[in-house]
Design brief:
- It contains 19 helices and 23 strands.
- Helix 9 runs antiparallel to helix 10, helix 10 crosses helix 14 and helix 16 packs parallel to helix 17.
- The protein starts with a strand and ends with a strand.
Length: about 675
């Protein structure tokens, strides 16, 4: 039995060797959307329609269809698939199986052919009785030999279910002798359906001619045997012909597959927890390194010192980019990354891309061009963040590996069903050897070690690009020639969208901008406390610092504040628990909600939603630049006037431990 698994978009992520053998493909050909090439052209539309109906109606997919092997020949298969659901109930993919039923189909067809041919021979050759009888005997002998050698059980019954013929294989399965079975009806061995249900089933098959179903038969020993039954009704003879397959081996395979899925889900959960920890542990020190570097650049430095600090900052940003790429790639592999589709203008994205990277290109003497064809709709539905991530990576690489000439990025729409957005990034750079055009998309793999030393990089960018494009339901490949440049091509399904609803932009008048605010910071890392104090040293804001969530709750109850920054991960009480406690206290006392901003080194999908559920107003991911921090504070001043915050605090005991207050 062939087993497969796809992602939510229907792209294949796993097939076993049996599936490949049935389809006549190799593993590379089957991955992604390549599996569809194995479908018989005459069956594809019917298959896709049934698949779509199954998804829309949230029911299992099951149907018979054909595979057309590339080497020639056609095989009939029974395909079954069910949706896989994540913890939130969303569809994360599909798992299923295909069973080769070619022999069974041929057997049924051959049997029907013989029955029809025998009837015609009897009608035409009544005067040649002896010759017809000899021919019939020969064919009966052939049929008996065929039935005797079948790998499945076989039986025929009359129109009421009385067994007329049975092969040795079913006798061995059931434990009954042939004479015993010929004295029985199919109702006598059926254990799933009641006699009334069997009678209704017989009437159904008589009406429709064919049926395939799973049931259970009771053996003579009392053992219950799961059976897959394919039955045909021969209307001319008022008989049923049935093939019966013992499904116990297949149930074992299905059980093993389910166990493998449980193990995979467990591993995915463990990986997600690991990513959460690693995100926090890596980005927390980077917040201090980059923040202190920015502050150092604001001081009086001589030319040599400023050069050293700039190199330090460049190295810090490069390290942060590497951390982000590793985390993004891991999130895709762990199925923790979710797309956020919006109505966006591809032309605006191209303009931003060219504006930002043209300076880098000009510094190398290169020309950078971008063009969006008129076939591309003004607004499309996509995840702008992930699309930009892919394009900036590809164009940045093109500039990096091109010494002379130009780099061009173009977009057009390829008509078809469905229509596809085609984005091409072409350069006149060093090129890629033919045998490396696939390996460069693997994590930590690069074209040439010498190029690594010359141009830098870790080999993660293209792996992340391929993962993100696949997540968006598309594919990416490269065409290249050593010394003649490369062209990376992206194909994405495109959906035309309506323009986004414009939001009301506030004018420049700030509601008490840069006025003295009482700010509470809950942060357990001393270096981050020092960084925040340095960021706000030359502002009119008054900063109070506590070391964990319990102190923050006590401080809010004892003193009035205009704004609170709450680190998510702290000892004693974490930031989300503290925020919930503050919100509960505000509801109980009827106070205006204090604006609370979550600070976290976690850069995983869903963290913003978690902060909102806890009661936070905004979410900031570390490392945090000084300018960004001040912008957020001013935004809070615009959204929440100081009069909205509680003017006084209740008479409550002070915080249980010492705090640090900083102003000016």
């Amino acid at each position: 039995m062939g087993v497969f698994e796809t992602n939510a978009a229907g792209a294949c992520v796993y097939v076993n060797d049996q599936w490949l053998a049935i389809a006549g493909m190799n593993r590379d050909e089957a991955m992604g959307n390549g599996w569809a090439k194995a479908l018989h052209p005459d069956d594809r539309e019917r298959i896709f329609q049934e698949w779509e109906n199954s998804v829309l109606q949230q029911r299992p997919f099951e149907m018979e269809y054909r595979f057309q092997r590339p080497s020639g020949g056609t095989s009939h298969v029974l395909g079954m698939a069910r949706a896989l659901h994540g913890q939130a109930g969303d569809v994360t993919g599909f798992a299923g199986s295909v069973i080769d039923i070619t022999e069974r189909k041929l057997a049924v067809a051959e049997l029907a052919h013989y029955q029809a041919r025998l009837e015609k021979l009897v009608e035409k050759r009544t005067r040649e009785k002896e010759a017809a009888t000899r021919s019939l005997n020969r064919r009966n002998a052939l049929f008996s030999s065929f039935v005797a050698t079948l790998p499945d059980g076989f039986c025929t019954t009359d129109g009421n279910g009385r067994i007329l013929e049975v092969n040795d294989h079913y006798c061995r399965l059931s434990g009954y002798s042939r004479p015993e079975l010929l004295a029985m009806r199919i109702q006598d061995v059926e254990s799933t359906e009641s006699p009334e249900e069997v009678a209704a089933h017989i009437a159904y098959v008589k009406q429709h001619g064919l049926d395939r179903f799973q049931t259970r038969h009771r053996a003579k020993s009392g053992v219950i045997i799961p059976m897959e039954v394919s039955v045909a009704y021969i209307r001319e003879h008022q008989q049923f012909v049935a093939f019966l397959r013992d499904m116990r081996p297949w149930e074992q395979v299905i059980a093993e597959l389910r166990q493998a899925l449980v193990q995979a889900e467990t591993a995915s959960k463990a990986k997600g927890e690991f990513l959460t920890v690693m995100s926090h542990e890596l980005r927390t020190p980077m917040n201090v390194v980059i923040g202190m570097g920015d502050l150092l650049l604001e001081t009086d430095l001589d030319e040599v010192q400023r050069g050293y600090v700039n190199k330090l900052q460049n190295a810090g940003h490069n390290l942060l980019e590497l951390i982000n790429q590793i985390l993004d790639l891991s999130k895709v592999e762990a199925d923790r990354m979710q797309l956020v589709e919006q109505s966006v203008s591809l032309r605006d994205i191209f303009k931003e891309l060219i504006d930002l990277l043209s300076v880098v290109a000009r510094n190398k003497g290169l020309e950078l061009n971008g063009r969006v064809d008129e076939t591309v709709p003004p607004w499309i539905l996509t995840d702008p963040l992930r699309l930009k991530q892919v394009l900036f990576n590809l164009v940045g690489n093109a500039i990096k590996f091109t010494e002379h000439g130009d780099v061009a990025v173009t977009a057009t729409v390829m008509p078809g069903r469905p229509a596809m957005l085609h984005i091409a990034v072409r350069d006149t750079g060093i090129g890629i050897a033919p045998h490396e055009t696939e390996t460069i998309f693997e994590a930590f793999t690069q074209s040439d070690a010498s190029l690594t030393r010359r141009h830098g990089g870790t080999g993660l960018g293209l792996a992340l690009c391929r993962s993100l494009v696949a997540l968006m339901g598309g594919r990416i490949h490269v065409e290249s020639m050593i010394g003649a440049g490369s062209t990376f091509q992206i194909f994405l399904p495109i959906t035309e969208a309506v323009p986004p609803v414009p939001t009301d932009d506030r004018d420049g008048a700030q509601h008490g901008a840069d006025s003295p605010l009482r700010i509470l910071l809950a942060e357990d890392v001393e270096e981050n406390q020092m960084l925040m104090r340095a960021y706000l040293r030359e502002t009119p804001y008054r900063l109070t610092i506590v070391n964990h969530g319990a102190e923050a709750v006590a401080m809010v109850r004892s003193e009035p504040f205009d704004l609170a920054f709450m680190d998510v991960q702290m000892p004693v009480m974490d930031g989300y628990t503290a925020t919930r406690a503050i919100r509960q206290w505000e509801r109980e006392t009827g106070r205006q909600p204090l604006p609370i901003i979550a600070l976290t080194a976690h850069a995983l999908e869903g963290e913003a939603e978690r902060s909102k559920e806890a009661g936070c107003d905004l979410f900031l991911s570390k490392p945090i630049k000084k300018q960004r921090l001040l912008e957020v504070i001013r935004h809070i001043q615009q959204e929440f006037s100081p009069n909205d915050a509680p003017a006084t605090a209740p008479n409550a005991p002070p915080a249980p431990t010492a705090t640090v207050a900083t102003s000016g």
